[in-house]
Amino acid sequence: MKHYKSYFENEQECLKAILDIHNNGNTFDCDPMYNKGYFYKEIEKPKYRFDINPIVDDCEMANAECLPLNDNSINSIVLDPPFMICTRESQRNFYSSKTHSFYNSYEDLINGYEAILKEAYRVLNKKGICVFKCQDYTDSKTLMSHCIVYNLATNIGFYAKDLAILNIPKSKVYNGNTKQRHLRKVHTYFWVFVK
Questions:
Q1: pTM of this prediction?
Q2: Per-residue b/e over 133-153, b at no fewer than 16 CB within 10 Å?
């Protein structure tokens, strides 16, 4: 019997471990933030693949805050929302702002996270799992997103069953032109919530 640790250096291995332990080895039923489908290099694609602005052919248009799925209709969902906030025009010129989606304010991030978690809760069956990928972020102040996600999810009614950490040593999300005042966040979290 294989045993997994909570720390990974490969996203595919992290996702496979989560699916093996928490979803009987099955892939996700739904990914409403599919983008280009990077999660599915080594795991099977979900039946339901949505994005607010689809850029690949095998994905339908839908907002993760209002999915075209019935209440209590799926067993698993994965959420990978933006994690950065860009409040100044200068931030939009950095490499990371051009390659990652972002929120315009702290309030937008909170409201967006809460809305997608509520929608996930709506469409999941009882005992269904929601895997939420998030990353802490620093811009003058540190935003401990993984704590925010935990609080939002548990207030909605989810049980926080597990947490995996993925190290990304080659992360390019930073501004090399500023004096470092915080540790660089080169890891992401994968929360496993149960309805």
A1: 0.87
A2: bbbbbbeeeebebbebbbebb
